[in-house]
Structure formats: C-alpha cells, structure tokens
Design goal:
By secondary structure, this protein is mainly alpha-helical. It is about 60% helix and about 5% strand. The chain has 2 domains: about 70 residues, Multidrug-efflux Transporter Regulator, Chain: A, Domain 2; about 45 residues. The relative contact order is 0.08.
C-alpha cells in the first residue's frame, strides 16, 4: 500500500511516517519500481504501535526502546515495566507543574480587576522577576 493508505490505516500522518523513517524509528519502506513507498501490513501494525505509544505520551526515544523490546521475543518484561514506570513519573511531574501554573494564573486572574484601569497584576507578574525565582534556562516540552 502507498503512504496515504498506510497513513489512513495506521492513524499516523504521512508526514510523521516520513519523519519516523528519516530518524530511523522505523525502517525505510520498500519501494515500487515507480519509486513510491510500499508499506506492508506489518509496517502498518508497527505504525499503529507507535501511534498508541504517542497517544500515551511516550517520547520518540522511549518508543524506539519499546519497539526494540517488542521485536525481541526473548525480552524480559522488567525493562518494559521500567520504561513505563519512568514515563509515569515524568507525566506526574508535568501534571504537578501544570497544576502549579494553573494555581498561579488563577491567583493572578482573581487579583486582576478586569476593568477600565491600566493596572494589571497578570502583566506585572510577567514583567517582574520574583526575588526567589530560578532563572535557569530549562527545556520545555510540548506546549508547556
């Protein structure tokens, strides 16, 4: 099947399929004589695996490790469990961070009069560094 059909069957966009091939997450598809990619049912099955892992928030690196374990029939489930447990911890950290952000914004919204005056604690907070703020540059993931 061509890339459009594989995308439709797997729920992974053609753009992401190309990206996964380019990064080595999946092997390059076979090519027809015309040069078009040709995906097998096995390829689509792998793409569905990846889509479900992405739906659970696993990173590309984590998915690569899970794919390797999935292909290894002599694997031990302990490694799969470790990857999933580590991912849960990461998700819980992100949830706490987002709850803290929401609480801060909630407080700021409550303290903003939202009237004709120019004073706005929301904007003041965004322009001013609190004395205890950690200004270390931290990588952000996703929209957070």
């Amino acid at each position: 099947m061509n890339i459009g059909q594989a995308a439709k069957s797997s729920g992974v966009s053609a753009k992401m399929i190309r990206y996964y091939e380019q990064t080595g997450l999946i092997p390059p598809a076979d090519r027809k004589a015309s040069g078009y990619r040709d995906y097998s049912d096995r390829d689509v099955h792998m793409l569905r695996f990846i889509r479900r892992a992405r739906d659970l928030g696993f990173s590309v690196a984590e998915i690569a490790a899970l794919l390797e374990l999935w292909r290894d029939k002599s694997r031990q489930s302990s490694e799969v469990r470790r990857i999933a447990s580590d991912h849960i911890a990461t998700l819980e950290d992100k949830i706490r961070d987002m709850q803290d952000m929401a609480a801060t914004l909630r407080d700021l919204v409550q303290s903003c009069r939202g009237d004709h005056r120019a004073e706005c604690p929301i904007l003041e907070r965004l322009e001013t560094d609190p004395p205890d703020e950690d200004l270390t540059i931290r990588p952000r993931s996703g929209a957070v």
